């Protein structure tokens, strides 16, 4: 994770030109810092918003491409056979919208699911539509959070990580409970 103070000084010095590459590395905290700088008149809030949304979607597409072109090899390294991989791929394609949107909103589970979607050959248009549906409210929420509470960025950085972890654990628990209930 990028240090908030380093990101803040870089963003203030170099403007929106650095928002996109930094947002690819650590989107939420960079979005909060950039929106706070926009609130203070250092950056343009419209440019920040569009940039973080596009950077998030670009990062998603890169993870999808990595999964599409190397995902099966990674799954084989994890000792999953072709039959298991095919079963997982069918399951992911059948539930793609719910899984993709849910994973994007939990933040922590996002990268693995986006990679798996590429490996499962989820249609790219569907993949991007689902990610856009999750990215818009998520990015706008972080822009608003930064606009209103950006000066608390040091406290928010740690808080966001714990919330993401908590949401991921909750999602995993709900998934396990749902699977158990549907298997009965």
TrEMBL record:
Main subcellular location of this protein, as a coarse class: membrane
Domain VTT: 31-147
GO terms for cellular component: plasma membrane
Coiled-coil segments on the chain, per record: none
Entry keyword set: Cell membrane, Membrane, Transmembrane, Transmembrane helix
TM helices/strands, residue ranges: 6-38, 45-66, 124-150, 156-178
Membrane topology label: Multi-pass membrane protein
Entry annotated with the keyword Transmembrane: yes
Domain of life: Bacteria
Subcellular locations according to the entry: Cell membrane
Keyword Cell inner membrane in annotation: no
PANTHER family per UniProt: ALKALINE PHOSPHATASE LIKE PROTEIN (PTHR42709), UNDECAPRENYL PHOSPHATE TRANSPORTER A (PTHR42709:SF6)
Name of the protein this chain belongs to: Membrane protein DedA with SNARE-associated domain
Organism: Cereibacter ovatus
């Amino acid at each position: 994770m990028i240090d908030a103070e380093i990101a803040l000084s870089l963003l203030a010095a170099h403007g929106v030109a650095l928002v996109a590459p930094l947002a690819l590395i650590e989107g939420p905290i960079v979005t909060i810092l950039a929106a706070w700088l926009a609130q203070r008149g250092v950056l343009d809030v419209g440019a920040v918003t569009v940039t973080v949304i596009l950077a998030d979607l670009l990062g998603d597409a890169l993870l999808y491409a990595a999964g599409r072109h190397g995902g099966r090899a990674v799954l084989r390294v994890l000792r999953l056979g072709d039959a298991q991989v095919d079963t997982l791929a069918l399951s992911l394609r059948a539930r793609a919208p719910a899984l993709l949107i849910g994973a994007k909103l939990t933040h922590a589970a996002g990268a693995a699911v986006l990679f798996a979607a590429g490996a499962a050959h989820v249609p790219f248009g569907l993949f991007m539509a689902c990610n856009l549906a999750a990215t818009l409210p998520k990015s706008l929420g972080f822009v608003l959070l930064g606009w209103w509470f950006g000066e608390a960025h040091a406290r928010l950085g740690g808080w966001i990580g714990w919330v993401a972890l908590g949401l991921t654990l909750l999602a995993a628990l709900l998934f396990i409970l749902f699977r158990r209930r549907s298997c009965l």
